[in-house]
Fold these 2 entries.
Entry 1:
Amino acid sequence: MAIGTAAGLFSGIFGVGGGSVIVPLLVLWLGYGEREATGTSLAAIVCIASFAAAVQAGYGNVRVRDGLLVGIPAVAGVLVGAWLQQRLQTRTIALLFAAVLVASAVELLLR
Amino acid sequence: MIGAIVIGLAAGVVAGLLGVGGGVLFVPGLVIFLSLTQHQAEATSLLAIVPVALVGALRQDHYGNVRRRDGLLLGLFSVAGAAGGVALANALSGKVLQVGFALFTLVVAVQLVRKSTRAPGARAGDSAKEV
């Protein structure tokens, strides 16, 4: 229950799914294996993001067209990414991507 | 329009590859490349996450990795938190929210580095495909 509330709060404030909160907490507090934590987290995120998006729509912030234009290609992207994951050594990519995240954080901070 | 599609594809590939969420990519992508405000980007990101998480959850369920009851309970218990979070986000100025989001992004970056250095040679997104 605490995990759900914390994840919802994060999701609502930052517009993310909450997986980065749910997965570690399921592992640490409830003794989940990482695969189960990830799968269960995804199922929870479907509920969390749907609800939070609906609330945001009430504030008039949701750009439905942009959301679909981003979200639907992303599904295809995830499938490609998961396929690549089986074939690539992703450690270097993970580090590179962390650098991209830092760069995007800096860009947002300087705006 | 092309911009939105490219952001979606790119974010999806990275999400599938590394198990990092879609939102942490959607939000800066929408702000930086489509010039949405931070509030609009966060709200739009939530909508974009739904199909991605849905497909991911179905796939994981197929592999037997979803504890359905717990997932549903988590989702239900998150409702109050999500409503509070959205209200808080809308009470904050775009600037404050953007700085907060940037800090959150940095935390995710650190998590990612730790995860991929903890198990040398392991695939970072091996078991994780979160959103």
Entry 2:
Amino acid sequence: MYFLIIALGFLLAMRGARFVLLPRPAEGLKRVWREAADFFLTTSLILALWAFAMVFEKIQANAREYAILGFGVTAYLLSRYQKKTDVFFLSALASVFMISSKQCDLSQDVLLAGVLSAGVGIFQTCFLGLRYKLLFSHVPAPMKGWPVLCLLAGFIALVLGCPWGPVF
Amino acid sequence: MKLPERLFSRMLLAYLPFTVYPYGFFRAGVAALWIVAFLWVTVAFFWFTRRLFPERSLKPAFFFWLIVWAQAAWTLTKLPPYWIASVFFLAPVSFLEDTAKPNHVRVFSGEVSRSQCQSIEAKRRLGPSKLPFWKRKKKFGRYFFERALAGLGFVGFVIMLSLVREIAEKRLGIHAFEQPAGMLLVIAVVAFLWKNQPYQKHG
């Protein structure tokens, strides 16, 4: 779960939005948490539909066998309906697959979806804040771009991994 | 010879979903080879068939193709579907557009003379559909070459990082490499070296 949070947090921070509101961090922060809430609701809805399908014994076997197909199509349609990016759809599919593979009941699944969305939101908030601080510091030219972004992501992953590792 | 930064960003973004797999060196290499083989098949398939799809359904068809193959790979080999995100980042969906063409920035940077620039601009103005068949065929070759290079680069990138992880985690016992943090710090070093690679002029 922790690996997925870091991977998705970094991916969504880099490619999750069509534009980045770096000079206006307050708006960027609002966007990050709105996206995290949307992510939570989307994954929870797919998990609820999955749990609903599991109630009927006749379709249970097929639903289990073609779970990825079902998750993928539902995640794609929900992402398109909300006019989200392609990365959002792929992230939702990956999250739902990971949570469903733990085979818990619906309440635990929703709780895991909440933890995952919150983790992604926290990662993106830290990333946005550090990127904003870097705007006003003199980063040497050879370090600008991917080197400094990977370094920031690495440090955030290190910090999130220490105290909250057991939580994730 | 200087490799473009675009290639690095593609490899890096494709590698991120890959970090979720708890694979060792060998299995990571096999999974990376599968991703690249699938990428090449996908690019070739959609290059030749994209005109058969209605314009608005091309992108959904691409994603449906990915989902169906994710399901097939899971059924046959129990490979979790995170790899389709890697394929997506290696083959950005812009290649589905009818006007898709290779970027005119060279893969290996070199000086482009004024006359070459003018001829490239003229070809761009002409558009792909108006080009004669033999020139379009050449374009496909170059287009596919860029994708082939991205795929090979991705496999190399995965093998290198898996090797570093194997050594640092198992031989040296560095705990940071049990987490994504260690790998991200290694990637930062690679990104630094990639960005500051020396430029050497040939001839």
